[in-house]
Fold:
Amino acid sequence: MYSRPITHMHRTAFVILLDCSTSMQATTSLNAVSMSKADAVATVCNFMLDELLERATRGQEVRNYYDIAVLGYSDKSVRSLISDPNEEFIPIDRLAKIAPMPQTRCFDQILDDGCTTSAFFSLRPWIEAQALGDTPMHMGLAHTAIILEKWCSKPENQDSFPPIVFHITDGEATDAKPAELINIARSITGTQTNDGNTLLINIKLCTEEGKSVLFPSDLEKQDGNTNHLALYEMSSIIPKQLEPLIAAIANHTNPGPYRGLALNASPCEVLSILNIGSESVNII
Amino acid sequence: MELCTIIEFRTALAQPSHYFRSLRNIDADLTTLCRSRHFAECRAVVNGQNAIIYAPISPVAIEYVSRAQRTLSGIQSRCVTPMQVYSDELRCGITCERYCSIIIEFPAMGTPLAEALYTMSHDRLVAGLEQFYARLTECNISHNHIDECNIIVDNRGEWHAIRQYYTSEGTLGDDASRKRLSELIDRYALADGERLMQLHEEYASYGAANIVEQRQRIEQCGLIGFADAYGEMVVECKYAAASDFAECRAVVTDTEHRMGLIDNFGVEVIPTLYDELIYDATSGYSWASKDALWAKFNYLGERISDWRDRLEIDIDFDEA
Structure:
């Protein structure tokens, strides 16, 4: 299980599900630059999309290794944030054809000797920050479950590495209670290919200064927050194959199994978590 | 050792002084950045020496490097290319909060076996192969991924393995590759090295300074062809004009003033049938005209548009 190499014959799918509610207008900082959470999340998502495109590129050709969906929920609706709003999954080779021109961002960087210098990185602005309305998380998860059900049921996907869903939020659902969220999350993790069930990784962005909890093995000992416990229950158990990656990101010394959950995550930690998606793909 | 993303690797190579902690004087050729299954790699000049820099992009890569380091430790042989692991060398992450190790190889000056197969004599290649495998046996190691892209053949005909992160102890891992390479040599290598050397002396080379992408233009009886870096003819001298190679493609004009596009072994990917041909190395597209109509071709030479009037075809003639 979770071992199927990804080829153009056995593709996989990634879903990034973003909370685009008003609370994402709150300020956070990315590399000491103050920006809205929505901006920070858009930046790290763009980073991941660029990386997935790079990984599918061999020579001058982009190979059709995976489908990607980036969905946003807010204000009683769920929509695609890339390309055609009515088309959720886009094959990577088609995404390459509509790739926006890269934009360069400058930032200060502290060198090992303590000196500060300016560095830059280039990213394609695949998605733009959005933050308006309430938080229909249940609706977003339900929509994700539907498109995954459809994706997994296609005969050509049945032997594929299972889809990975990254759900990034900063708040609490306005359309459902924790028990309902757990149920709908289970309909996501219930979708499957012959290589395993869909992996759902929930990431709650930091709302205030505090220690982040990344991929806990047992949340109850650390946190009594009901909503956090609900997110814990909603998240997939990380398969054995990915445990070394997770342990490195989370600096875990304790053994797995870990849950696909990050609480109070900074934008940089979110990027590390998203990178799991690209680093775990076993592309031929 | 931490993993690196390709974007992080690219960003670091573009600004080495910011992202490399101890290495200085790195001049990377970002057009060569590519990925294999477990590593991203890029050619670069490091402290004045030609090098290939590798960054691990999958968890298995780290296991491979550790094994290769253990296996190659203390081995000094001409079949092995010096490989150095720089621990925690590359700053990664948007805030550079992580450090990734990189691997650098300093390959011998020479030509990849993939190219040598078509440009060197059979005898020379067979001798190189025998010597190379004997050296691997002597060192009791297997490269495990020997193919025509992972061997550099130097100007003495000696073979040197690159991408040695696959190396393990014992000699059982390369038997199949030896058989396969032997067959390739028998099928493709030039049978008569002597005849080739005589030919070399007959034509007037444009000079080694004009080598672009391992190819130099040569002239014979007023016609243009191409030789490899050793001066061995690769593309027969039959064209009235030819551009330099860019991304393994060159625009050629035959003696009937018809234009086409060749690959770096002289195969006409777009035959010399056209009145005009424009090739854009960045996109890989070409635009060719015949009887005042234009069509667009992809990198493989396949026509991907209808024949249209010049004004209707999507080409920026000024830029191309």
Q: What stands out?
A: Residues 138 and 180 of chain A are 8 Å apart (CA to CA). Chain A touches chain B through 38 residues (CB under 8 Å). The two ends of chain A are 17 Å apart (CA to CA).
